[in-house]
Predict the 3D structure of the following.
Amino acid sequence: MTNQLYAVVGNPISHSKSPRIHSLFARQTGEQLEYTAIQAPLDDFSGTVRHFFERGGKGLNVTVPFKEQAWTLADHRTPRAEKAGAANTLYLDKDQDLVADNTDGVGIVRDLQNNHGIVLKGARILVLGSGGAVRGVLGPILAEQPAALTIANRTVTKAEALVRLFAQDAGAAMLAACGFDQPDQPFDLVINGTSASLQGDLPPVSANVIGPDTVVYDMMYSLQTTTFNQWALDMGARRVYDGLGMLVEQAAESFYVWRKVRPETTPVIEELRTD
Ligand code: ATR
């Protein structure tokens, strides 16, 4: 039997860890598949997707800067993709219609709860940022019923728009929007979802949001401690984590969506750390 074909599409794409993660999953589960990386031209994401599925491709992951385009392009969206406003997973259904899914939110929740033992139910959470990355994870985080979730952003109107969008999903959680200058008390969990560190910046949030029991999660990952996590450690955070586990967990959920087989993530996260 020939291997079934999967790929990640982005631009740039050479740095992507997804081919490595999925080949580790395939080896672990014995699934027969090939997973490559495709750099789509910035002006022809849709042509790249069409071509991939026309030549028999089974599933795509989508990364920067095409997640919103993937969402728009699809014939159908899963409810979690609909809410996220972006898609990281594409496949064809039995009618050959293009379906968009989003596994990022499930990915961060599993990394926080299963891998790091952080209980989201009843937690007081501060989320920094209001871009696509944050929108993608708010639904699954709110589904875990935190006590309060505050979204702080440089552009406050974007945080306010997210609060309106997710008001129905908040349940009993107190959902609020503000600027970086407002939060002034320690939170149980602080999630950095800004892209500030790409420019070597820190979101200018008060050190008072970090207390001795605060856990910090940077959705970015890097070989060294991220800029944000280093700052949080310096401010006395109890524990800090980067987003590598989220990356592996979202990949595992995509693998499950396509193959209906759930890979074990812990050995894969450990292997990537030592790469
Ligand atoms: P992504 O897909 O990574 O979420 P995005 O949609 O461009 O990318 O959103 C980037 C987020 O990082 C936004 O919340 C942005 O703040 P604004 O909404 O005010 O633009 C935030 N961000 C980017 N650079 C930042 C910086 N130097 N300091 C603080 N926040 C920053």
Remarks:
- The chain has a mean pLDDT of 97.
- DSSP finds ten helices and twelve strands in the chain.
- The chain has two domains: 4-102+245-274, 105-242.
- The first helix runs from residue 18 to 29.
